[in-house]
């Protein structure tokens, strides 16, 4: 059981707080802190990127031309100044001296801290194959990547996206939608798209939809190496089964790697990322880590929901409010492709202990699958009409026993609520044993 004492306040946290990184996690922490009456007296934020924090989740709609860059900005530089927060952009922290409690940037700037938050995020996970360093190979992680991919789309050619998960599909569709005479292929190592979130039926529905739009989906594809031309530009992909694909550009969107190098160099405990406890504290009590660069109980993070919960814990601690520690909880997945609605959570495959409920309207393209264990929802996949997804997720988190309403579950909350009301009315009309005895 978590206790408030583990995440209690220390007086020194109210002096100078330095935050390395100005991504979504960092910005949400700052927004929470400036609202607190016991906020740290001085807050300095250092970011290697040249622009203030922006919504990375919307990079795909930006690439697709569905919104402008201004729409992604969370707050402009003036807002930070108005809040009394020092914002340093375009500088990377190269050195962390824990013994002196100082950080040094690549410009030579030295900053002392009383408490330090590492919110350094992540970078695209690049496959360890020959040719990955060739020109024309890109990640899809920041505004500069989005600009590069926009140029690729408008030049046309043969683009290959490596990764058939959320980010890969969003990048591929953005390229296709923005492109002029561009051919876009998606390579997926698994036998189906989004294999970690979708079952076979939903994955096939998604693949059919994207194929009809013009994307070439290649599953069961393992990249062996990249080949370049005489100018060092990528020109071809070789798969381990001998297949070859022509390519004028390659976009890698097959997962992320936590930016934990600074913590590792400073001697903090690191594994896949910077290890933290339930208070988001690293092995150094004067340093916290947050978001994609941290690891808690063996888990690293790439979705916003758990990171927002981390922010709540850390903001309370830095603001002087005792709080329960962070604990992992299930998260739901949504796809951000215009015209495609997906909502999923929980196990992808049904076990022998699961009861499986299915609904498939082929004409409308709606599909729902629920996994129940002992009357409780453990997993759901919705394709097409996803309006009931949040309600299913709420029931799953609450552990609601839905056995009595299982035949109405696939139709959503409204039908279940009607059934609940009918059952309650029938129970109220049934004479109790005590009433019969009196009669």
Set down the secondary structure blueprint.
Layout: E1 16-20, H1 24-33, E2 42-47, H2 59-63, H3 77-82, E3 85-89, E4 93-97, E5 102-105, E6 110-112, E7 115-118, E8 122-124, E9 137-138, H4 143-155, E10 157-162, H5 166-178, E11 182-188, H6 200-213, E12 216-219, E13 223-228, E14 234-239, E15 244-246, E16 249-252, E17 256-258, H7 261-265, E18 274-276, E19 287-289, E20 294-296, H8 304-318, E21 333-334, E22 342-345, E23 355-361, E24 366-373, E25 376-383, H9 389-398, H10 413-429, H11 433-438
Parallel strand pairs: 1-2, 1-7, 2-3, 7-19, 9-16, 10-11, 10-16, 11-12, 18-20
Antiparallel strand pairs: 4-5, 5-6, 8-17, 13-14, 14-15, 21-22, 22-25, 23-24, 24-25
Helix pairs in contact: 1-8, 4-5
Structure overview:
Helices cover 26% and strands 26% of the residues. With 439 residues, the protein is α/β, with parallel strands linked by helices. β1, α1 and β2 form a beta-alpha-beta unit. α1 packs parallel to α8 and α4 packs across α5.
